Amino acid sequence: MNELSDQSLLRDYAKRRSEIAFAEIVRRHVDLVYSAALRMVRDPHTAQDVTQTVFLALAKQAPQLADHPVLSGWLHCTARNLASKSIRSDLRRCAREQEAVAMNELIATDSDAVWKEVAPHLDDALGELSEPDRDALLLRYFERKSAREMAQALGITDDAAQKRVSRAVERLREFFSKRGVTVGASGLAVVISANAVQAAPIGFAITISSALVGTTLASAATATAIKTIAMTTLQKSLITAIVVAAVGAGIYEVQEASKLRSEIQSLREQQTLSTSDFQKLASERDNALRDLAALQADRERMSRSSAELPKLRGEVARLREVERELAQLKAEESFNPAEAEMKSWLARVNQLKQRLEAMPDQRTPELQLVTEQDWLNAARGGLETDKDFRKALSQLRAAGEDKFARMLQPAWTRFLEANRGKHPSDLAQLQPYFDAAVDTAILRRYEFVPAGKNQMGSDWLVTQKASVDEEFDGRFKISPNGWSSSGAGAWKKRDLEQESIYNLLSPAKKAYQQEYGVSEPSDYARLRPFVTTPEQQAALEKLIEEIKVRKESEAQ
Question: How confident is the model at residue 259, as a pLDDT?
Answer without folding.
Answer: 65
